[in-house]
């Protein structure tokens, strides 16, 4: 006999419902007498120090830079699987979300420029990249509320668009808004990525190995000045779909998808919503 909680978790729409509830809760807290307490929670310092490595960020930043890298890891895994053997395996199907993502970034930026071109404040024009961002996490959450009524192809389209949009935003920030990129960290990130690709080609099928190198990749991307969610996408595309483990065929990619699904749906996305939706 399944408990009410188990039945709730198994429903695909449950994660979307939870996302909406947490979003409303954050808005209420932020705009009530508990607002200062909510803000204090967001800015709880979380420090990690291992030898020379030192990462000191607020809880808010750990969620956005750390947990959301795991979210994009899961999205990347699902998109890679579909690119190889699913709905995005043809060139035409794979091109559509790419074109949509480029249009979704370019058109809003163009509209912003048109309306601010003659603005007397010179700083106004520097905000052209703001409308290019798409909050895919919320979009996927709301879409999941419709459950099986939403075609799989639409969900995959949105996931692929999410990855391309995130990569585009990272490139824009790196080229136009970041002045202190770390050459050393970028080099370590590239080396880590090469190691991951080599592991894939050699047929390594151990989650722990990919986790360790992926962690180095995440830290180096974080320290480089580039948004750390890029590490999640990069790691996802190096995870093998098919491999051998002790002579038995396994799919490391599908195993990781299964392992991450509920954590992302019922912890990471609600946490992301809670720390980002508290607008005054």
Q: Which structural category fits the helices and strands?
A: mainly alpha
For the record, what is the CATH homologous superfamily label?
Answer: Na+/H+ antiporter like domain
**What would CATH call the class?**
Mainly Alpha
Quantity of strands, as a count: 4
From the alpha carbons, calculate the radius of gyration and give it in angstroms: 20 Å
Largest sheet geometry: 2 strands, antiparallel
Report how far the terminal alpha carbons are from each other. Answer: 44 Å
Strand content: 5-15%
Q: What is CATH's topology name?
A: Na+/H+ antiporter like fold
Q: Determine the mean pLDDT.
A: 84
What are the segments in which pLDDT stays under 50 over at least 5 consecutive residues? none
Strand order of the largest sheet: 1-2
Describe this protein's structure.
With 280 residues, the protein is mostly helical. The chain has one domain (4-276): Na+/H+ antiporter like domain (Na+/H+ antiporter like fold, Up-down Bundle), CATH 1.20.1530.10. Helices cover 68% and strands 6% of the residues. The strands form 2 sheets. It has a two-stranded antiparallel ribbon with strand order 1-2. Strands 3-4 form a two-stranded antiparallel ribbon. Helix 6 runs antiparallel to helix 7 and helix 9 (207-224) packs antiparallel against helix 10 (229-236).
Write the layout of secondary structure elements.
Layout: H1 4-10, H2 14-30, H3 35-42, E1 45-50, E2 53-58, H4 59-85, H5 91-116, H6 136-144, H7 152-177, H8 183-201, H9 207-224, H10 229-236, E3 243-245, E4 248-250, H11 252-276
Antiparallel strand pairs: 1-2, 3-4
